[in-house]
Write a structure and sequence with these properties.
- With 642 residues, this protein is of the alpha+beta class.
- It has a single domain, classed as Neuraminidase (6 Propeller).
- 12% of the residues lie in helices and 28% in strands.
- The strands form 5 sheets. The protein has a 10-stranded mixed beta sheet with strand order 1-14-15-16-17-18-22-21-20-19. A 6-stranded mixed beta sheet has the order 9-8-13-12-11-10, with no helix packed on it.
- The protein is globular, with a radius of gyration of 23 Å.
- It binds MU-OXO-diiron and calcium ion (3 copies).
- One calcium ion binds next to β27.
- MU-OXO-diiron binds next to loops.
Length: 642
């Protein structure tokens, strides 16, 4: 989803208005904040070990959220037109009255005329998987061809060995590893809506394509061709085979799909005696990798033999969904980390701004600003906009509930990113983005997941899903990360001054703080727009529809016990950004997370991903569970959410 700037003069800006004036006073605010942070650290340092129950009456977070919105949170939202549903522990999808869902495509479904059907035995080979929909559906984007036809590009984040193989992956052969690699990546398919409002995949469309861990790709931008990119099979340092752990996504106004490489580290391994570099440790690469075990059958993933191979992953990859023969392009200017998603916004001056999160406890939020300007009249001229630009990392004030922030530039030679400090050139700043961010003192966040820009372009929202390490060393409690041992999560939003997303300052506030008001009366009850009727934990996927409704998907604890009692299975909620109202719209089947959302151009169909269901979804009975993309429509054919 991308958004274009609109004139904002007539738009009511409920939170940012009061903050706009503060932008110019960042320096003093920041200094004051440090003081607050220190005193708070002391406070938490003493009490965090007391556990969740006993510390810090934090209902002020909620007060501030509600009062800063200037409206009563229980007001009936003009945006939300359905009756909210309750929680569920059933092995199915539940929706509000008047809504219905259908399966569109599940793991293993054939995408080509000659592709075999899904074989639930787990004995299907690698060649079959390469012609089928990949596993663990995640972020997706729709590229309309006509009113009822479109190309759908969908990430396949990872695979579950428990279900992929008949023996659960105990004795992996070379073909087994290749099959796992084919279950990853991106699936591209043409979809069509019939006169009964049912969507289906067109199996013989020329657009259909599978991109996986063996697909040839190109590195572009400042790190392409660098010595740290050269490997035994690629002396040029510009070629890559594959993309993996494609979590969420983005789309550009020039019609390309962006897929984000998240936990790429988990696919590399080496013998126990191989010494890891500091940078490998920083990115979580481990010797004794047990989950996927690719390195035992495919030595590209043995970082002892191929120490530079991991440098080719952890990027954003741009794909032309309309040209199945095109090479996917890795955009090194946008930095290397565990990319969750990318929110593209065309600024009023034509600069393309990309907001990105690094999903790790204590990792950071980034912004990329293109060097060249977007040209709406010449799509081909936009093809290289993500090749060159400036990368920034966010520094938030440590104030309570809201405050100021700044974007710190990550450019070689600036802000101490120099050879004396271990950065030889700009390519190294990009290849080791995390190291650069740490060096400039970026704020450690509670696992940044998706980021979304409001359709009006005035505000940006980011889910901070949870962080059990908040309050430990290097991850101080405060600012947008207000609770130690944060296992519920929150949504932070920021407002650039005068709608200028290229500015190096911003104001932020907390849109919601998730919690369980049945189990807690303190900070862990959540903000005032959270009650027993709409509670949840671990917000992850977010996106706006055209009307400005914010859709929130969860990937959290679904045990429905203890701190999570009454929250049920993972779910999707619909929120009004102005009033703060949050209504539960959907609950998912057992064991799944809800991730991936997209709308038809008329907003009458919503595509949603059900990832890693763990009972018998979608077929029921004794069937094997399969990650599935579903389409939600209204029985009366109306706009979703209205
Ligand atoms: Fe793949 Fe951070 O979720
Ligand atoms: Ca996610
Ligand atoms: Ca998550
Ligand atoms: Ca996931």
């Amino acid at each position: 989803m991308y958004t274009m700037s609109k004139e904002l003069q007539n738009k009511e800006l409920p939170v940012s208005e009061a903050l706009d004036n503060e932008v110019t006073t960042l320096e003093p605010t920041f200094n004051k904040l440090v003081d607050t942070a220190i005193s708070r650290r002391r406070f938490f340092g003493a009490s965090a070990t007391a556990g969740l129950g006993g510390f810090f009456a934090f209902s002020s977070v909620g007060n501030a959220v509600a009062s800063s919105m200037g409206k009563h949170t229980m007001a009936k939202s003009p945006l939300i037109g359905f009756d909210a549903i309750g929680t569920s522990t059933a092995d199915t999808i539940v929706l509000p009255e008047g809504y219905q869902w259908q399966s569109l495509v599940s793991w293993g479904d054939p995408l080509f005329p000659n592709a075999p059907k899904f074989d639930p035995s787990g004995n299907a080979n690698a060649a079959s998987q390469a012609m089928q929909f990949g596993d663990n559906t995640d972020g997706m984007s729709l590229f309309p061809l006509s009113e009822n036809r479109a190309i759908l590009a969908i990430n396949n984040e990872y695979t579950n060995y428990k279900y992929l193989y008949a023996d659960g992956g105990k004795n992996l052969t070379k073909d087994d590893v290749l099959k796992a690699q084919h279950a990853h990546g991106v699936s591209i398919m043409e979809v069509e809506r019939d006169h009964k409002n049912i969507w289906r995949v067109i199996q013989n469309s020329d657009f259909n394509r599978r991109i996986h861990v063996q697909t040839e790709m190109q590195l572009t931008g400042p790190a392409a061709g660098h010595d740290l990119m050269k490997t035994r099979i690629d002396a040029s340092g510009t070629q890559v085979f594959g993309t993996m752990n494609n979590c969420s996504n983005g789309a550009t106004p020039w019609g390309t799909y962006l897929t984000c490489e998240e936990n790429f580290n988990g696919y590399f391994g080496a013998d126990a005696n191989v010494e890891r570099t500091e940078e490998q440790k920083m990115y979580g690469i481990k010797n004794d990798e047990k989950r996927y075990q690719w390195y035992k059958q495919d030595d590209r993933f043995d970082f002892g033999r191929n120490p530079n191979e991991p440098h080719k992953f952890g990027w954003i990859v741009e794909i032309d969904p309309k040209d199945p023969k095109s090479l996917p392009l890795k955009r090194t200017a946008m930095g290397r980390f565990k990319h969750e998603n990318v929110a593209i916004h065309v600024n009023h001056d034509g600069s393309v701004v990309a907001y990105m999160g690094d999903d790790e406890r204590g990792a950071h939020i980034y912004k990329f600003v293109s060097e060249h300007k977007y040209n709406p009249n010449n799509p081909d001229a936009n093809r290289n906009l993500l090749v060159d630009g400036t990368l920034y990392v966010a520094k938030f004030s440590m104030t309570q509930d809201k405050g100021a922030g700044e974007w710190v530039e990550l450019t070689f030679g600036k802000n101490g990113l120099t050879p004396e400090n271990g950065f030889a050139d700009h390519a190294e700043v990009l290849i080791y983005t995390r190291k650069a961010a740490k060096h400039v003192g970026a704020t450690t966040m509670d696992r940044p997941e998706w980021i979304a820009v409001h359709p009006d372009g005035h505000q940006v929202y980011c889910t901070l899903t949870n962080n059990k390490n908040r309050g430990k060393e290097g991850q101080p409690v405060g600012g947008p990360n207000p609770r130690a041992e944060n296992h519920y999560g929150q949504i932070v939003r920021w407002t650039p001054p005068n709608g200028d997303h290229t500015a190096d300052k911003f104001n932020w506030d907390l849109y919601l703080v998730a919690g369980n008001p049945n189990q807690h009366q303190d900070a862990y009850a959540g903000s005032h727009n959270i009650g027993s009727h709409n509670m949840f934990n671990s917000p992850d996927g977010i996106g706006f529809d055209d009307a400005g409704r914010l859709w929130i998907q969860t990937d959290g604890n679904y045990k429905n016990k203890g701190d999570f009692l009454g929250q049920g299975n993972n779910q999707m909620l619909c929120a009004d950004p102005d009033t703060g109202e949050i209504h539960r719209f959907m609950t998912g089947p057992v064991g799944c997370e809800i991730t991936g959302l997209e709308f038809s151009p008329d907003s009458k169909a919503m595509f949603v991903g059900i990832q890693h269901p763990d009972a018998h979804f979608p077929e029921g009975g004794n069937s094997k569970p399969r990650s599935t993309v579903v389409v939600i429509t209204r029985k009366d054919g109306g706009v979703i959410g209205a």
